[in-house]
Amino acid sequence: MTIRRVSFTRLTRIASLALAVLVAAPAFMAADTQAQQLERRRTLFDVLFGQRQPEYLPPRDVRRPIREQRPRKKTGGSITTIDTRTPTSRAVPPAPPPPAKLDNAKKVLVIGDFVAGGLGEGLKSAFEDAPGVLIETRANGSSGLVRDDFYDWTGTLPGLISELRPSVVVVQIGANDRQQLVTPTAKYDFRTDEWFSAYATRVTALAEVATKAKVPLIWVGLPAFRPQNMTADALRLNTLYRTSVEKLNGEFVDVWDGFVDQDGRFIVTGSDINGQPVRLRGNDGIGFTAPGKRKLAFYVEKSVRRLLGDMSSPDLVRLDATNLPSLIDLPPVEAKGIVSTPPIDLFDPELDGATELLGGAPLPASSTKTPRDMLVRNGKLPDPPAGRVDYVQRPVATTATP
User: Fold this and answer.
1) Which stretches does the entry tag as region Disordered (predicted)?
2) Distance between alpha carbon 104 and the CA centroid of its chain, in Å?
3) Distant-in-sequence, close-in-space partners of 225: CB < 8 Å, separation ≥ 6
4) Where are the extended beta strands (E) located within 202-291?
5) Which DSSP string corresponds to 229-251?
6) 300 and 253 in contact (C-beta within 8 Å)?
7) Using CB atoms within 10 A of its CB, is residue 225 exposed (0-12), middle (13-18) or buried (19+)?
């Protein structure tokens, strides 16, 4: 029997291989066990129709370690830094306050019901930048001309005129007057001829209070409303207002077209004074929004500016002896030879010749006869100069001397 001798080196290699197998075996067993756990059990469908395809297992979500960003070393080259901070919103500067009203500002008195109250707010916005105009609103939302026992405008207006001394009186009333009218002698139902006759008498009485006090009167008509019967009544009342006020040389302002469409129907949303679509009326179809109040005042603003003149403009301030600025700011020695003259009023009618029309005075006599005079008197124009396009005369032929 022959016994082979195994070298020590070979035994070392075999031992190392066996040790590696023993170490790797648990890892393979763990992977096989995990795969068996992830694999779904076979169903009856798999047994009858064959082995199913292996199910795809998505890879695990392995998060990468976050590396800390270390600051780079500065080099000699140019370095551009980017600001990654969120920009903060800049504070909007507040709007400058409106200019203060002058002590001699002209007052506009607005009276009436709740519609007149909105008109007064719109006029305040319209003349906010005009220091020479002050809007005084004295409106009673539930008032009218029918229930004079609740609020008597004809008896209240004289006291307001004497107290405020307005330059213009603006009246808008009638939205609450669609009811029975009671007089000392009888009661009249609404929409009857007797009712309109008695109501016109009260309109005339209120308008006469302003005209007798020699204050310009502006009567503003009613707008359209959502209730159809209320809109129809407003049309009839506007006709009555116009007829009664114009008889007393008052001015009637019609605002109807601003709150209806092209077919004359009531609208809630329409264009504002700048032509932009906005909501003009409230949810009830009777009240007004802020743009609606401003649009309501837009129609009255033109008449008020025309009656007040230059005081209604925010850029024009009449100069007089009380607010005349210092036009000469020189040392006394240099100001001796200067003659100061008062400022010229651009609204003075005497500057353009008063009542004398252009051409009223005869033109100064002249000895030079114009082509027009020669054509009228002699019937012939002077000869045109040579070389002009209308010069058609032939040159005179010259005879040669022998």
Assistant:
1) 61-99, 358-402
2) 29
3) 175, 231, 234, 266, 285, 286
4) 217-220, 251-253, 269-271, 277-279
5) HHHHHHHHHHHHHHHHHHHTT-E
6) yes
7) buried
Rounded Cα–Cα distance for residues 310 and 106 (Å): 11
Work out the burial of residue 218: count CB atoms within 10 Å of its CB; fewer than 13 is exposed, 13-18 middle, 19 or more buried. buried
Q: What are the average pLDDT values for consecutive 10-residue runs of the chain, which has 402 residues?
A: 55 71 59 51 65 56 61 55 58 79 92 96 94 94 94 96 96 96 94 95 96 95 94 95 95 95 93 93 94 96 89 57 56 56 63 62 66 78 79 68 54
Tokens describing residue 105: 């500002």
C-alpha span between 359 and 342 (Å, rounded): 31
Q: What is the DSSP secondary structure assignment for residue 275, as one 8-state letter?
A: S
Q: How much is the pTM?
A: 0.58
All structural domains of the chain: 106-312 (3.40.50.1110)
* Structure tokens, 242: 């116009």
User: Distance between CA 42 and CA 336 in Å, rounded?
Assistant: 121
